[in-house]
């Protein structure tokens, strides 16, 4: 059994760090707020009897030895957020893993396998436009040139690391070998569990995000003196592309494509924009369909640029392969859910998660917990105490079963 009151209090205590005026949370990586959040989670891990340290990229890791010298079981998620995000995205997974370990300690249950609980650095990529930083490092997939990605103020990941006392030369030491499996609990961020009226579900696979930055350069000119037929207006061109993106994505059953951020210069009320930049987030469980949609979007962008004498450049920010969850771990999760007398629902994840980085390295499994109205990446993100409890009990059962596997 887990202590749901303790877990519920921690969710709300952590959410106070980086709290926004409409009761959301903004916690970008390598900032004061995120460091403060990590230090609070470090205390939680210590209270759960874990030995806690930061690795070379700033992942916070709480470890406990196993009864035998076996590969470790990893549990975790992230505590960084999107701008003005919710209280549960990522944090619920980290805090639930800590609660499970604290409950095992209190019940004097020692597992055969060592367990590491990890709060992964910069899963969202909200600050640098390049996510899954901590899990890439643990997977040994973070390249030195990745650290050159910059935030809106021109600060690179490398500089942010150094400013917080880390040594970028050492990021390879974050790689973890000798791992048995990884299990992540996360809010669903969609409506499937709510529509099926169940609190938890088993995840079958994770859609892989592809992020592009599209830049359109025209000519900044006088809004009053420039006839309509003589303009090179990149904002009008961008609006045609953005409308087409929606049309192209809608032709596939599961694909999604989102323009989440857009900026233009110079931004004067009486000035035809000179340049426009926007991002596109393209996803599908099928890598082939996702990449086909990418091609259609880039071809259309270039065609519009040619027709309107607008220079179009497209930069890839990140490309993560979709991942299938381990059949064995899925079975353990489904068994655990049915032991709680909850109907077993399996579903794919449209959202990306740290688990994706461990694809082809060791088996991964994910437990989803219901999101009220399917809302996430929004201060209104909510999961009930009962559902949090069901998720934690599912994780506890799954971990004990995995330890026996
Ligand atoms: O973008 C995502 O899917 C996740 O929230 N980082
Ligand atoms: Mn998220
Ligand atoms: Mn998340």
UniProtKB/TrEMBL annotation:
Domain of life: Bacteria
Stretches assigned to the Peptidase M20 dimerisation domain: 206-300
Keyword terms: Hydrolase, Metal-binding, Zinc
Residues noted as binding Zn(2+) 2 in the record, renumbered to the chain: 89, 124, 377
Coiled-coil ranges (or none): none
Cofactor remark from the record: Binds 2 Zn(2+) ions per subunit.
Cofactor(s) this protein requires: Zn(2+)
Record-linked Pfam families: M20_dimer (PF07687), Peptidase_M20 (PF01546)
Gene3D superfamilies from the UniProt entry: 3.30.70.360, Zn peptidases
Transmembrane spans: none
Binding site for Zn(2+) 1: 78, 89, 186
Annotated family: Belongs to the peptidase M20 family.
The protein, known as: Allantoate deiminase
Organism of provenance: Bacillus oleivorans
